[in-house]
Amino acid sequence: MKKILQSSLFLSAVFLGSAQVLESDNYNSYTLGNVSTSMTTAGQGGMNLYNGAIANYQIVAGDAARVKYLAVTGGSDGTTTSSRYVYKTGLATAWAGRTSGNNIIKGSFEVYTGTSTNKHLSGVSIFGADNGIVGIGYNSQTKTINGRAYLAITADPSQDGYYNITGLTANTYPANTWVTLGFSYNKTTGAITYVVAGNALTLSVNGASTVPGFDPAEFDIHSAPTRTSTTDPANSGPTTFGIDNYVIEASNSAVLGTSDIKKEKTSIIAIGPNPTSEYLNILTELKINKAEIFDMSGKKVNSTLEGNQINVKHLNPGSYIINLETSKGKTVEKFIKK
Q1: Which residues form the signal peptide (predicted)?
Q2: Would you say residue 105 has pLDDT above 80?
């Protein structure tokens, strides 16, 4: 298992064209309660669990639109051990057996934004054999939708990797709300598209490009702890979120027509690679007024922004927070130093 980070509508109006389902679930056929009886063997529906305890993964009753859904509870602190993952095996085999020409993997799902008090980033990711490819989820600290993407860095290929993406939408979403999200990755062209509540955006990042050629190997539902700012304490209680009605497909069609897709990059900020061992890149067209790094205790560490890079070689391995101020406001992201 590759761990590089720690509306019932299926977007039928957004995802068009011929497609074949590779993996899906609506959880309605499962027994309420624990997803599995073990952290080491697959449970209901072939779901595997990673991190935490059996009780952290539950099938719960929903409403008329969502009869049952998967609820995941994160840990009670801000460390990586509070992260949670749910995954099935079989995506790599299904992708390898797809119909010839169906080189676009795309997914849609509903996320329940969950806990309002503690902080979490919860959603889904598609992983390849060695790295993350694409992901999208809800950030409870900013109440916004954040993306993930593997990017090739124009100025320094050694910094290629899995990046955190903010600025996908200016909309915010409160706690305990269902939001419909989607994504696509084109193996042939490398194009990545995100869909938030029916609105599509093709990813374009200043100083970087998406990468073609990756084969999807695993679909992960995941949650990781975050903090609202560097002065906030780490999570002092559990965090929750939910997932329902997900569909992962292989298709030969792009998401919408090119005239219907928003191609806006002025608000996009990509931070990574995450994890990193030497440099943290900040890729954006926005003017960066300030960049500061803090450890998880809230202590500021020495760092200097040089162009669009921060040298982190001197940092001890572990989790850190980067606090950015741009002309569009503040961005707080967590990253891991290897």
Answers
A1: 1-23
A2: yes
